[in-house]
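HOLO CASE FILE
Compound: nicotinamide-adenine-dinucleotide
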Amino acid sequence: MTVFEQLEKRSHEQVVFCYDPVTGLKAIVGIHDTTLGPALGGTRMWNYKDEAAAVRDVLRLSRGMTYKAAAAGLNLGGGKAVIIGDSRTQKDEMLFRSYGRFIQGLGGRYITAEDVGTTVQDMEWVRAETDHVVGISRAIGGSGDPSPFTALGVYESIKASLKWTTGNESLAGKRVSIQGVGAVGYHLVKHIVHDGGTVVVADIRDDNLKRVTSDFSGVEVVSPEAIYDQDVDVFAPSALGAVINDDTIPRLKCSIVCGSSNNILDEDRHAAALQDRDILYAPDYVVNSGGLINVANELEHYNEERAVERVKRIYDIVLSVFQIAREENVTTLDAANQLARRRIDALAKIKDRYVGMPLRARDRNR
Ligand code: NAD
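Model generated. Tokens follow.
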């Protein structure tokens, strides 16, 4: 498939190739859809096996951001960028300064942030060249670490899922299995334990396990392989993708799957497979949108209280997804996609009325 055929297939607006022979920068920016606002999404640095793989990744990820932002109720479109290279050996200030100039050249159509392989420090270098970057440290007015906000969104989603299935959102007396107690998992344990729930956790890192068992009571540890077999109310994958698959679904003894991992389902058809087993699936990209909501807050001068208040709205969004799934008789994954699509399509239909000066002049005067 040619690049243009790939753009047509998933309705991308624009793909920008950025090359700088001096710093060796090779970056690709994917802008999927800007109906709701500027395309926001992180910059991933990865040693792709070839350029075609990098293009495929940026197209897939940028489209995902459109749906995530739309479902989260943000006035943002979907974008993502990749820098081709080894993040351990090929990073330096000038590479990111050069990259920042390309981002500036997009005039705000794309706003970047950190992602896999890039850090807050890298984004501060980018920021020296452009305002169109978020995810910078608290010390310089940014939103800082997104993980506690992502965890808060997962906690709200778990409560909404319990409300939907049992009529009661409280975690008191409930048991939750958490796969991975890293940045997000740690804060998730905290919320559940504080709400009266118990947790069973697994991780491949002893230091992270030790941190949760020493900081909280009511935490049981099992081996990474045993986490799928736990008799629990909720299974919260918070480490890896594709963990809900043909092998694991028959083993699950939970009534809800709701966690922070990206791409929890191995394939979309696994949403229906969970439904067949009467397990409620809270779609990952809605559940884990707290980090995006927090970082997007930087665009309006970061305010933590406002960020927390907005992240808590994920509760109602998750309930809306379940409601659509019931009304339309579709999986919860399809319902989340519908929720996002409806918002984009509804805004696209509103006429852009003449307001006294041509659009371009109006933008200049903002
Ligand atoms: P992290 O790297 O801090 O933590 C992941 C934890 O999972 C680590 O402790 C790691 O040792 C553990 N782990 C790895 N393989 C495992 C296995 N096989 N079994 C059990 N544990 C295993 O990552 P994080 O920031 O906490 O993110 C967790 C997930 O949530 C990731 O999938 C990430 O993409 C997603 N996510 C994170 C954020 C965020 O704000 N950090 C936002 C959206 C989505």
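CASE NOTES: Residues 3-63+77-133 form a domain with the Rossmann fold fold (CATH 3.40.50.10860). The chain is about 45% helix and 15% strand.
CLOSED: yes
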